[in-house]
Structures are given as C-alpha cells and as structure tokens.
Automatic annotation (TrEMBL):
This is PHOP2 phosphatase. The active site is at D8 (nucleophile), D10 (proton donor). Substrate binds at D19, D99. One of its GO terms (molecular function) is phosphatase activity. Keywords: Hydrolase, Magnesium, Metal-binding. Mg(2+) binds at D8, D10, D179. Its cofactor is Mg(2+). PANTHER family: PHOSPHATASE, ORPHAN 1, 2, PYRIDOXAL PHOSPHATE PHOSPHATASE PHOSPHO2. Belongs to the HAD-like hydrolase superfamily. PHOSPHO family. Transmembrane segments: none annotated. It comes from Acrocephalus arundinaceus (Great reed-warbler). The keyword Hydrolase applies.
Length: 241
C-alpha cells in the first residue's frame, strides 16, 4: 500500500510565487515597465529569462538571490505537513511538478531541510552561467493545447507513473495538491479513486467548480484546503484505513 503525493510549488508549498519574489533583488525592488509588459501568455519562461538578464546586468549575484529566495514563507501548516510526510516515507512517494525552476526550488527546500521528503522534482532546468547570470530552459516539449509551452504537468505525471510501473511500483491512490490553472490538466488525468486537493480561493478550485457546473466534473474526488494541516488530517485518515 503506497500513496503518491504530487505537489505544485508556488502558492502551494510556499505562500508566494518564487518568480515574482526574485524581483525584490532588482533596483528599487521593481522591474522597468517595458520589461514588465513584455510577458506574453504561455511564454512565462522566456519572460523570466529576460528578468534574469536584467538582474545580471544590474550586478545581482547568486548569493544575493539565494538570500532573498530563502526568506519566502512556507504556506500555513506546510512545515508540519512536510515533517509528517518525512516521518512516513515508507507509505508516501512524493514529487514536485512546478513551473518554477531547479535553482529556486533547491535553495528553498534545502533551507527548510525538506529536500529529503521529495523523491523527484520536475521543473524548468536553471543554472548560473560562467558570467554569473541565471539562465532557465523549458522543462520539455509537448503537444497539449491547454498548457503553457514549456510544461504540461499531465505529461510529466503520466511519464512518472509509467516509469514507476516498469519498476513494479503502483499506487493505491494519487493525491494531487496545487493551486493554479496549469494544475487542471493533470487533475483531469486522475481516476475515480484519486483525490485532487485545490487550494481554497485559487484558480484551480474555481476551474474545478466551473467544470462541475457545466456538468463535466473531474473523475477524482475533490477536497479543498486552506492550511496544509487540512492536507495532513486527510493523509492521517488515509493511513489509518
């Protein structure tokens, strides 16, 4: 009996968006209008690439970025939840699927000492260049019309499950914890026995309830959370059964 926990990162594990938080490093803690207005829907990764160039051009170095990123607060109850999962790793496999990047997630998980809780992190690859600029790439290519160009979370989840099956690992239930519009695609992939846990008041919850109103509800069960303690309560019930 093993459960798979799938976490989004921004506004789920942390209570902010890591990509917009980095702007605190910019001169006067803001971006010039031209740069801010250059974002095009579906092309967030390219936009962030330009933000990182701007930060690099203004002499923002890796250590300053790291210091800033590790001040992001975890979501209410999340430290307790991740501690609980860490204590019960024999029952839970745990992955992150996020549109952030490897550098930010690695810094934040290590600062909280939570990197051991997660078996794998699927996110946009990032690295510092020889000149000290942070660069970010697309996670993968895909053909899903619903998702941003750089990442279809359903594809990531499906490929992970296929790989696990080849290793002889199958899951009693998948629990998907997220908040954003790009979490809807993987939630629609979940089966009847699985559970989606959208964060209260965020886009994912609204999209799921719109689907229910238009009589095309998701297959899985839905349980809304506002504090990660709500998630922990559910997981405790799950392992009691």
């Amino acid at each position: 009996m093993k459960f798979l926990l799938v976490f989004d990162f921004d506004h789920t594990i942390i209570d902010e968006n890591s990509d917009t938080w980095i702007v605190k490093c910019a001169p006067e803690r803001k971006l010039p209008n031209g740069l801010r207005n250059s974002y095009q829907p579906g092309h967030w990764t390219e936009y962030m690439g330009r933000v990182f160039v701007y930060l690099g051009d203004n002499g923002v170095k890796e250590d300053e970025m790291k210091r800033t990123m590790t001040t992001i607060p975890f979501t209410a109850g999340m430290i307790d939840l991740l501690g609980f999962i860490g204590e019960n790793k024999e029952l839970f496999d745990c992955i992150i699927v996020s549109d952030s990047n490897t550098v930010f997630i690695d810094w934040i998980l290590k600062a909280g000492d939570f990197h051991k809780v997660f078996d794998e992190v699927f996110t946009n690859p990032a690295a510092f260049s020889s000149t000290g600029y942070l660069t970010v790439q697309h996670y993968h290519a895909h053909h899903c019309a619903k998702c941003p160009k750089n990442l279809c979370k359903r594809k990531v989840l499906k490929e992970f499950l296929d790989k696990q099956l080849e290793r002889g690992v199958s899951y009693t239930q998948i629990v998907y914890i997220g908040d954003g519009g790009n979490d809807l695609c993987p939630v629609m992939f979940l089966k009847k026995n699985d559970i989606a846990m959208p964060r209260q008041g965020y886009t994912l919850e609204k999209r799921i309830s719109q689907l229910a109103q238009s009589l095309s509800p998701v297959q899985c069960s839905v349980l809304v959370w506002s504090s990660a303690i709500d998630i922990m309560s559910y997981l405790k019930l799950l392992i009691k059964e």
